[in-house]
Amino acid sequence: xxxxxxxxxxxxxxxxxxxxxxxKSAFDSDLHLVRANAERTTAHKRYKPLEEFxxxxxxxxxxxxxxxxxxxxxxxxxNIGSRxxxxxxxxxxxxxxxDGTYGDATLQSWKAxxxxxxxxxxxxxxxxxxxxxxxxTVISWSENGAVGYKVTRAEGGVSxxxxxxxxxxxRSVLKRLRRGRVLKAARYALREEIxxxxxxxxxxxxxxxxxxxEGGRYDPPPIPDHHLRMVLEPHDxxxxxxxxxxxxxVGPYELRQCAAPGCERYFQAGPGGTRSHxxxxxxxxxxxxxxxxxxxxxxx
Length: 300
Ligand SMILES: [Zn+2]
Prior knowledge:
By secondary structure, this protein is α+β, with helices and mostly antiparallel strands. The protein has ten helices and twelve strands. The strands form five sheets. A three-stranded mixed β-sheet has the order 3-2-5. Strands 6-7-8 form a three-stranded antiparallel β-sheet. The protein has a two-stranded antiparallel ribbon with strand order 1-4.
């Protein structure tokens, strides 16, 4: 049996119940997204993003790059992570300013990370849909036979050489990438970029007892079946979303958007998820879609 997503990864994240707000920092001119009412309340809800939202990386990729849309995303799913901000705990700050502590990503860093995710999600969609026109704008061959691609990273737009005939190690790759055949080259580019990104996030490997037959969860404590499994635990939401994206690219299942009217949830179809030909995310949606289709037919 193929391992499902939640058997490979373990990740819990928290969202402050008071939500987030934008504040100026004492140390730079950018806005930081910080916990609202941080002085008064610390109540959080904990959730499992990878299990509850199998396409969270796609939702993130298409968040509009404005303060309000980003804040709305954070209020639902939490701040992106711990790689931003700098802990300076013992200084005094003017009221309304942040000390830039743990996880306070700035507006610029949110925008940059959204753009980076969107660029690769769009590249992946173009590969799946065999959208050659789009891929031709990404992949290019130069006179000397080198293959390269253009991509948006968090630090900005870059041109990358995928393989160059001058390098011994690249020659076997070049043999597989016939000039002008963009689809395969695009797959190489996508692999290269996702790999680079997940490499930049710390992930811890854990040994856990597998779920028992009664479906015990890891947290609260598992019902052990006395078989140990290895699971990967990302350290923050951004790292988790990149792992999720990577898994969706290699996984035997497909992420599909629910076809029921009014529901836009993504669900995992195929091994480890719902039946591979499922159109809807749950039984309620399946029934709603069927009622909708019947009504539509009776109107014709
Ligand atoms: Zn649905």
